[in-house]
Design a protein that fits this description.
The protein is of the alpha+beta class and 290 residues long. It has ten helices and eight strands. The chain folds into two domains: 162 residues, no CATH class; 106 residues, Aminopeptidase, CATH 3.40.630. Helix 1 packs across helix 3 and helix 7 packs antiparallel against helix 8. The relative contact order is 0.10.
Length: 290
């Protein structure tokens, strides 16, 4: 059924109230998302501005999420809307990776008219925050733009999740294998912006590539590599697992540390902490292997 504007607004508002105020599982997920992005600005914002900035950014993130959700609803509020059945049957990681691609495709007619992406997706709150922030912090604009678009894509993903349920699509079941860092049958998101894909796996080796989510506005894809080696001679060497992480050198140190800690914590399911050897490395490119 095609809804008029007021009916569509009410439908979206009711669903977002349910998500953000009633659904405890979603609230926990969204709080983690907000905390992840707020942490990115800690090294930038001075103590004097922190309270104002954080409150403003929290409001911006909620509104961008709402905006992304509404964009999907508006697109499907059309009897000629194309329903991408393949998208809706993808496992969750692949589904998430494809969401920004789908959103860009939906917005392409407006982009073809010369309208800039931020003019389409940014709310007034976000635009005002950016104007205020760049007057005080010269290099903050790209990070704010990326945060804005990511939250828009996350709102779109939630709307697509709801559509998947509405259309009664079932996620396909792939042949999967659980390895130490994750299941090789899907993309493994380790935070809202980064995910793992399996590159090579054998009895004693698992080699993963780390990618930025397709929402990345700079078009950067691969940003890291993770290698886990199981030592069959660990009784002699006292090293049961070796973990090697290489990341592009522009990734903030605190994010690299968070990834390493996350992985090493997973590895403690397979070995004691003192049986795990690890190495972290910064690289300028990935023409060479770990």
């Amino acid at each position: 059924m095609i809804l008029n504007n007021s009916q569509l607004l009410k439908k979206v508002d009711d669903r977002l109230v349910q998500l953000l105020q009633v659904d405890e599982e979603f609230q926990a997920e969204f709080n983690q998302i907000q905390a992840y992005y707020l942490k990115k600005f800690i090294p930038i914002i001075n103590d004097r501005d922190k309270k104002t900035f954080n409150a403003w950014l929290r409001k911006s993130m909620i509104e961008q999420f709402q905006n992304g959700y509404m964009m999907i609803e508006q697109y499907y509020n059309d009897e000629n809307a194309y329903i991408n059945e393949q998208l809706y049957t993808l496992p969750e990681g692949m589904f998430t990776e494809n969401t920004p691609i789908i959103l860009r495709e939906m917005l392409q007619p407006l982009l073809d008219q010369g309208i800039l992406l931020d003019e389409i997706v940014d709310t007034d709150t976000t635009s005002n925050l950016i104007v205020w922030a760049i007057e005080k912090y010269e290099d903050i604009r790209p990070l704010l733009k990326q945060t804005s678009f990511d939250l828009t894509c996350l709102g779109a993903r939630q709307a697509l999740r709801d559509k998947r349920k509405e259309f009664e699509f079932k996620t396909i079941t792939l042949e999967t294998e659980e390895r130490k860092l994750g299941n090789i049958g899907d993309l493994i998101f380790i935070n809202p912006q980064m995910y793992l894909t399996i590159n090579h796996v054998s009895s004693n080796v698992e080699y993963w590539d780390i990618h930025y989510w397709s929402s990345n506005l700079r078009g950067i894809e691969k940003i890291g590599e993770a290698l886990v080696l199981s030592d069959p001679d660990y009784i002699a060497t006292k090293v049961k697992l070796s973990y090697h992480l290489s990341m592009l050198d522009f990734i903030p140190q605190e994010e690299i540390t968070a990834i390493a800690n996350h992985h090493i914590n997973k590895l403690t399911d397979y070995a004691e902490a003192d049986e795990i050897q690890y190495q972290l490395k910064l690289v300028s490119n990935f023409f060479s292997q770990i």
